Amino acid sequence: MDATETLIIGAGISGLSLANYLPEGSDWLCVEQLHEAGGYCRTIKQDGFVWDFSGHFFHFRNADIEQFLLDRMPKGEVVRIDKSSSILFKGQRVDFPFQKNIHQLPLDDFIECLHDLYFREGDPDAAETFEQMLYSKLGRGITEKFLKPYNEKLYACDLATLDKDAMGRFFPHADIADIIQNMRHPDNSSYNAHFTYPKGGAMEYVNALLHDLDPARLRYNERLESVDLQAKVATTNRRQIRFERIVSAVPFPKMLDLCAVPYDASLYTWNKVLVYNLGFDRKGQTQDHWIYIPERDKVFYRVGFYDNIFATPRMSLYVEIGLKADAEADIEGTLPTVLADLKRAGIIDAHELVSWHSVVLDPAYVHVNEPSQADFRVRHAALADAGVHCIGRYGAWKYCSIEDNMLEARALAGTFAAAAGPPVASAAAKGAGRG
Ligand SMILES: Cc1cc2nc3c(=O)[nH]c(=O)nc-3n(C[C@H](O)[C@H](O)[C@H](O)COP(=O)(O)OP(=O)(O)OC[C@H]3O[C@@H](n4cnc5c(N)ncnc54)[C@H](O)[C@@H]3O)c2cc1C
């Protein structure tokens, strides 16, 4: 039987980061069910268009994490962009975030939002759900004109089933003073006021993480099928592997299944996102990098413009549609609706679609709520005690960015290094890569 100290499941950002940050001299093996690395950070190049699996733009808060990637990429590969995003509201563009720009709305909508903001009901400190948080902090007008319809389209669920902090730091909070202040002195800075983007697409960050890794330790087309926690043996579609520890980026409920851990599956819910990447024969609007679409009569919740990042001559879009996890994604059948809605939204007119690609991200956004998080905390800790460490956006069942994935992987590798004790040094501490 094959054996390894650290068996990594999944060659996405999380698994590859973990491999990079493992202590020097570690014995590791990574199995990936697909034919290539990258997970959700993969890029498609087709007919001269460069598309990610979905709009992936990056805003690093830790210079050392960004530098780790840049050190492993060709010079000049990554560009820094001042973000331009807006909201489509009744045929007009309103700056994002909506709550700070209500003064840009038609007068009646502005007055309604302002009135409802001032006379909002409910105690934000007592809010338990995402929906209660929206109403109690921002009032009915702002909630019902943008935040509720937009997030219902995205999450494809009742917002009363989400935790008040379901979006964590990704929710742009604003109080009355911020909102009034912004009417005179615009400051629309949000968590991603700038972003970086590799010229070759998000996959270039994956390639950076592959840069120092021994390819022989990465096994593609190999899928984890079960784990015997007692015997510490993993079974894949190819073989059995004895392990000291597993680090898994497999979606958490799926990993519980693979480890034969009984749990209440109804606690874990998520949406999926149907993404269309669309290439047209000519340029469209040149202003925004992405547009939020709260209107329920348009099938998509967000449209992004790759061509406005690199000033390319043909419009290159990603279009995102939130679906319930059990909904059928009708890729061919929905495309005509997408094109019709793009036309009604004023994003295309006589444009001819010359190339397209589609992907379903499942899961895409996990539904963060207290019952699932409480169950997760207990089972996550129990699995870790059994040597199975679940990380990543889906392994750790949360809303996060690739930078968060790298930080989490680095911290976990640090605990392995600490447990191993001296004289083994931590690659994380040295900022070194891993063979
Ligand atoms: C719509 C959308 C937009 C996003 N936008 C951004 C953004 O702008 N900026 C940003 O920083 N982040 C963004 N993210 C988040 C980012 O995509 C994730 O944080 C990151 O890709 C997660 O990496 P991961 O390795 O944790 O998971 P994944 O990418 O899911 O990788 C897991 C890997 O495990 C493999 N695997 C699963 N099961 C098995 C098995 N049984 N056996 C073997 N292999 C298996 C999978 O094939 C996959 O390769 C976005 C996510 C979504 C859904």
Describe what is shown at a glance:
32% of the residues lie in helices and 22% in strands.
SSE diagram, text form:
Layout: E1 2-9, H1 13-21, E2 28-31, E3 43-46, E4 49-52, H2 63-70, E5 78-82, E6 85-89, E7 92-95, H3 107-118, H4 130-155, H5 176-184, E8 194-198, H6 203-210, E9 218-219, E10 224-228, E11 233-236, E12 240-248, H7 252-258, E13 271-280, E14 290-292, E15 302-305, H8 307-310, E16 316-324, H9 331-344, E17 353-361, H10 370-385, E18 388-390, H11 392-395, H12 402-420, H13 427-430
Parallel strand pairs: 1-2, 1-12, 2-9, 6-14, 12-18
Antiparallel strand pairs: 3-4, 5-8, 6-7, 10-11, 11-12, 13-16, 13-17, 14-15, 15-16
Helix pairs in contact: 1-6, 1-12, 3-4
The chain binds flavin-adenine dinucleotide (FAD).
The site of flavin-adenine dinucleotide has 32 residues, from helix 1, helix 11 and helix 12.
What does this structure look like?
The protein folds into 3 domains: 2-42 and 59-81 and 200-266 and 367-430, FAD/NAD(P)-binding domain (3-Layer(bba) Sandwich), CATH 3.50.50; 85-184, Orthogonal Bundle (protoporphyrinogen ix oxidase, domain 3); 271-361, Alpha-Beta Complex (Polyamine Oxidase, Chain A, domain 2). Helix 1 packs parallel to helix 6 (203-210) and helix 1 runs parallel beside helix 12. The protein is α/β, with parallel strands linked by helices and 435 residues long. The two termini are 23 Å apart. The protein has helices at 13-21, 63-70, 107-118, 130-155, 176-184, 203-210, 252-258, 307-310, 331-344, 370-385, 392-395, 402-420, 427-430; strands at residues 2-9, 28-31, 43-46, 49-52, 78-82, 85-89, 92-95, 194-198, 218-219, 224-228, 233-236, 240-248, 271-280, 290-292, 302-305, 316-324, 353-361, 388-390. Helix 1 (13-21) links the parallel strand 1 and strand 2. The strands form 4 sheets. Strands 1, 2, 9, 10, 11, 12 and 18 form a 7-stranded mixed β-sheet that branches. Strands 7-6-14-15-16-13-17 form a 7-stranded mixed β-sheet. A two-stranded antiparallel ribbon has the order 3-4. The protein contains 13 helices and 18 strands. 46% of the residues are buried. Bound molecules: flavin-adenine dinucleotide (FAD). The site of flavin-adenine dinucleotide (FAD) has 32 residues, from helix 1, helix 11 and helix 12.
